[in-house]
Design goal:
- By secondary structure, the chain is of the alpha+beta class.
- The protein has one domain: FAD/NAD(P)-binding domain (3-Layer(bba) Sandwich).
- Helices cover 25% and strands 22% of the residues.
- Strands 1, 2, 3, 12, 13, 14, 15 and 26 form an eight-stranded mixed β-sheet that branches. Strands 8, 18, 19, 20, 21, 24 and 25 form a seven-stranded antiparallel β-sheet that branches.
- The longest helix has 18 residues.
Length: 546
């Protein structure tokens, strides 16, 4: 059990076996798995509050949380010429459950090739066959099954097949098939390609965040301590060994030590930022901020990449869309449906229908993800419903080649880092962005949509040429909230962690979150982040068997 020491946590400073920094998608999983034995002591530190805000648990309320500073870091990207010199809103969860508490609930694992590529890059143990058991271990599939090869039931994380679809979502699926895409009943199974109904991390009417699925069942364990509103300001080092962390909680600075390891689970923005604040990163960058170089590691904050989505909006006639349902007496009706039956608009996720397609012939696997919503959004941005009824579909490249960075701007931990995803800086990304918009137009023009008299308003019928579509994408695209790669796993000089997720050149410190992905997965990143934490828990238990 924890051993009492001098002043610190509360009245006493405590030494734990493990200190987990960040109670997000990965941190909550680790807190559960590492305390299962009832012996290993774990301190989980979260900069945000408990997940008590009621909006966190209503699936469709994610749109209200994208800029809610109560539970969100509300970061913004650095302006960039490739995207119209805009500073783009960059939400990151700041609450128990992290971004799994504010995301769009879509459960997407990616493609077999993603993980096989990780392994081929020198990351032994991360091939698809290696990681599939960890996807299955976490999952409780509700509403669907297979022969047991890919999917599983009985795990902590509820993955639901959504049944209460809007009629326009069914129409999108039909139109996608008319446009040449196959129907895929389970894109997390053997193959990803095709139009599909998205699966949600939802149990009943409530969001299944990692805080609810993994952390809540573990909160009663005597060997787990959870501290919220605790901002970690530095990783403490003794030579080449991480010995603990310093954190600030309600105005009081405290130190706590780790007997075994410090586990950094802050995500693709906060993990590299904390490493840099702790003197771990590019030497010249650290010196320019007046930070002592404790451990030179040039890859920290580099290789940063994200999915960049551009949407087409069309107005429709002859059918009620979410634009009407979200107003007046209809909204009261939807609230009643949600409370009484756990159905209706308030159970919707970021995309109920969508698909995975190839941007051009000859590709071995899909490289575009589509998402569809039976609503028209102002400026094509999710969260801002337009006045006119309509529908919106977005497209983004699954494996972007553009690479940016995350870099501390100041030695002050309260100063947000510079976030530069460098969207559309690679030619292939620009080509796929245009191809994705053309594919949406083809689907919206299919016979299935004709009864609804779909009329494109964004970018509009006058936007025809490829250069016009690309210009629209530059001026209107935004993040899909899937940043990865800034503490990449590998064995090359720019890798930050090795295949066991240990920080190169240091002992007692691992990074365990989406930042370790050397290349993003082909889809939404929450499922793969949970898988990474599941596998990391086993790596830690093997390293410290007693």
């Amino acid at each position: 059990m924890a051993r009492k020491r001098a002043t610190g946590l509360g009245e006493q400073q405590v030494e734990f076996d493990y200190i987990i920094v960040g109670a997000g998608s990965a941190g909550c999983v680790l807190a559960n798995r590492l305390t299962e034995d009832g012996k290993s002591t774990v301190l989980l530190l979260e900069a945000g509050p408990e997940d008590q805000l009621y909006l966190l648990h209503i699936p469709a309320a994610f749109m209200k949380l994208l800029d809610d500073r109560r539970v969100n870091w509300v970061y913004h990207t650095e302006p960039d010429g490739e995207t119209g010199n805009r500073s783009i809103l960059f939400p990151r969860g700041k609450v128990l459950g992290g971004s799994s508490s504010i995301n769009g609930l879509l459960y997407v694992r990616g493609q077999r090739e993603d993980f096989d590529n990780w392994a081929q890059m020198g990351n032994r143990g991360w091939s698809y066959d290696d990681v599939l058991p960890y996807f299955r271990r976490s999952e409780d599939r509700i509403g669907g099954s297979d022969d047991g090869t890919y999917r599983a039931q009985g795990g902590p994380l509820a993955v639901s097949d959504f049944a209460d679809h809007h009629p326009l979502t069914h129409t999108f699926i039909k139109a996608g098939q008319e446009a040449g895409l196959p129907f895929n009943p389970d894109y997390n199974g053997a193959l990803q390609e095709g139009v599909t109904y998205f699966q949600q991390t939802r149990r009943g009417r409530r969001r299944a965040s990692t805080a609810r699925a993994f952390l809540k069942p573990a909160r009663g364990r005597a060997n787990l301590k959870v501290e919220t509103e605790a901002l970690v300001t530095g990783i403490d080092l003794d030579g080449r060994r991480a010995t603990g962390v310093t954190f600030r909680q309600r105005g009081v600075e405290q130190k706590v030590t780790a007997r075994l390891e410090v586990l950094l689970c802050g995500g693709s923005v906060n993990s590299p930022h904390l490493l840099q604040l702790s003197g771990i990163g590019q030497a010249e960058h650290l010196k320019s901020l007046g930070l002592a170089v404790r451990h030179a590691l040039p890859g920290v904050g580099e290789n940063f990449h994200d999915h960049y989505v551009t949407r087409i909006v069309a107005h429709v006639s002859g059918i009620e869309t979410l634009n009407e349902a979200a107003r007046g007496w209809r909204l009261a009706r939807e609230a009643l449906r949600y409370v009484l039956f756990g159905t209706g608009m308030l159970t919707y996720s970021a995309g109920n229908g969508g698909g995975f397609a190839r941007s051009r012939p000859g590709l071995s696997a899909p490289d575009v993800e589509l998402t569809f919503a039976p609503a028209s959004f102002a400026d094509g941005i999710i969260g801002k419903l337009a006045k006119e009824p309509g529908m919106t579909a977005g497209a983004y490249q699954l494996r972007p080649e553009s690479r940016g960075h995350v870099r501390a701007k100041s030695a002050d931990p309260a100063t947000a880092p510079a976030i530069q995803p460098a969207y559309l800086s690679a030619e292939t990304d620009r080509q796929v962005a245009v191809a994705g918009l053309k594919l949406i137009r083809r689907i919206f023009s299919a016979p299935a949509f004709q009864p609804f008299q779909a009329r494109e308003v964004l970018p509009g019928p006058d936007c025809k040429r490829d250069d016009e579509l690309l210009d629209y994408a530059r001026r209107n695209g935004i993040t899909v909230y899937h940043p990865v790669g800034s503490c990449k796993m590998g064995t090359d000089p720019m890798a930050v962690v090795d295949p066991a997720l240990k920080v190169h050149g240091l002992d007692g410190l691992r990074v365990i979150d989406a930042s370790v992905m050397p290349i993003t997965v082909s889809g939404n990143t929450n499922a793969a982040t949970i898988m990474i934490a599941e596998k990391a828990a086993d790596l830690l238990k093997q390293a410290h068997p007693s």
